[in-house]
Each structure stands twice: as C-alpha cells, then as structure tokens.
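Researcher: Next entry in the queue.
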Amino acid sequence: MGITAIVRYLNQNNIPTPIQYARSKGLTGNYDDGNGSWNSRSVKYILTNRTYTGVLVQGKEKRVVAGTHKSLVDIKTFDTIQKQLQSKIFHLSDSSQGTENILKGKVICGCCGGKMQRKRGTNHADWHFFTCNTNNRLGAGKCTGMYVREEDIFVQSITSSNCTYKSTLFLACSMMKK
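Model: Structure for this entry, 178 residues:
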C-alpha cells in the first residue's frame, strides 16, 4: 500500500489527524488545523520519523537516545517500511530530455480550486495531461478527479473563453474531462 492509498484510507474512515486527536484529548492553543484532512506529506513524515520507534533523535549530530518513550512501531517494521519507500523512489532523466512545464502551479481545478499536477501520458508518451492534486492526495470525496490534456489547455486559452486567464492562473473548467 502506497502513501496515497494510506491517505485515502485514513480520510475515508474518518481517522483523526494528529492535531484532531490531540484536541480531542484536551490540547489547547493556537495550532493550525489545516483543512482537517490527512495528506501525503503528513503520512510520509510519520512513516519516516524514527521517533515512533521509541527513540529520540537530537541535535545537529543526530544523536540517538533509545528508550525515551513507548514505541508505536517496532524497529523491524519501521526498517521494512523504509526499504519499501526507498524502492519506490525513482530518478527522472535529465531535464534536457524532458519538456519544461511552463504551466507549473498555474492550472487550477474548476471543481475544487486545488492545483492540478502535470503527468506524462501512459507508457512515457510524448503528451501530457493535468490531474487534480486534491483528488490524488485526499481522495474522491474531496474532488471529482478532473483531468485535462495539456494541449487542450493551450488551444482553449488561445481560441475560447472556456479558459479564463486571471493573475497568472489558468482556470480549467468546462474543458475538463471526468
């Protein structure tokens, strides 16, 4: 199970985020609750944080002190997770071989208002599309999962009023596909 699948599971089963859990146990203060949903950054942080194994990592030298608190996960399981995460890491080819994403951060989902992420077509095709990050990271309950081909964005932004250009943001609306 990957990080995205874990995020979807946690959100679909209404598992409280760490701050929600802490608040339910009486935590007070001015803490940022975010949007109240799990996200891939939080899950990855938890999965890669050795503190959950019962050790404390301190200082710039990363001094490890064992037995400072009760572990939530055993070392063997933690190390297995680290190996699985490392095996999923891949390195993209030199950027000169790929195409630059001139729309990075500028394509916005017309459904939820979240940013859309550029992806390459299947089997490393020479075309790209944008898909909603909200749907990818938080699950279908947060957005319907719209996508749009990059070529369609360029065509629509030049020839139609279906794509509105405002403050460097392309709003992909009626041209999106389900």
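Model: DSSP finds six helices and eight strands in the chain.
Researcher: Noted, moving on.
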